[in-house]
Design brief:
By secondary structure, the chain is α/β, with parallel strands linked by helices. The chain is built from 4 helices and 7 strands. It has a single domain, classed as Protocatechuate 4,5-dioxygenase, Chain B (3-Layer(aba) Sandwich). α1 packs across α2 and α3 crosses α4. Keywords: Signal.
Length: 227
């Protein structure tokens, strides 16, 4: 019998997974509980690396501190125990919103060890020569496509026995049938996963229907395995 290894957990990239982000309301509490359980199990399979889409150029892998400020959510809005693993690391560069969601969920699942988790941020859209804006101050130069380099970093981490936490939602690879939405996989992240060999992973997706007026119809939590 082949042994099955968990390689990744893919979370919805929404700040609403974090308690306090919506004020008193907590509409995604069931999703968060399932996500934290999946992350705790994932960490038992190997040390996690966060892969997320960012608003700027590729960054990392690096030890960031989580912050939801870019989503308009001040640190003081979060319960004190949520960012507690990073209390001694305030000098770190803040992660983007998607990576911060993953880090904070890891903090709730793992506690203090979450502060040691590295994150890799890539542009939400992949670079395509001839379609991207030139690099600022360098006329006519198109930024390098970060997907191959980021994919190599992810592949090396996995080959060393690590695991992956992705905050873009959905499922990696061409088998993803759901249309992209607030929790859909960003194309830039999909390109990195493809470069890392994620197309061969087996995916199991749980759906969480929503009935709130201002939320998408459902959120998805995906576990990826090999073997």
């Amino acid at each position: 019998m082949n042994q099955v290894f968990t390689r990744a957990v893919i979370l919805p990239a929404t700040a609403l997974l974090v308690p306090g982000a919506a004020g008193v309301a907590d509409p995604l509490a069931p999703v968060r509980l399932a996500a934290c359980a999946a992350l705790a199990s994932l960490a038992e399979a190997g040390p996690p690396l966060v892969l997320a889409h960012g608003s700027g150029p590729a960054r990392g892998p690096e030890a960031f501190r989580p912050s939801l400020a870019a989503a308009g959510i001040a640190d003081v809005m979060l319960p004190g125990d949520v960012p507690a693993p990073w209390a001694a690391h305030r000098a770190r560069t803040p992660a983007g919103t998607a990576a911060s969601v993953a880090l904070l969920c890891l903090g709730m699942a793992l506690g203090e060890p979450a502060a040691d988790v590295l994150a890799l941020e890539v542009p939400a859209e992949p670079r395509r020569p001839g379609t991207d804006a030139p690099r600022s101050g360098t006329p006519g130069v198109v930024p390098d496509d970060p997907a191959p380099r980021a994919g190599a970093a992810v592949a090396a981490h996995l080959a060393a026995g690590g695991t992956l936490v992705v905050t873009s939602g959905g499922a990696p690879g061409p088998a993803a049938a759901a249309p992209r939405g607030p929790d859909g996989l960003a194309p830039g992240v999909a390109a990195v996963l493809a470069a890392a060999g994620a197309d061969s992973w087996t995916r199991e997706t749980r759906t969480f229907p929503q009935h709130h007026d201002h939320l998408p119809p459902e959120y998805r939590l995906t576990t990826c395995t090999v073997g």
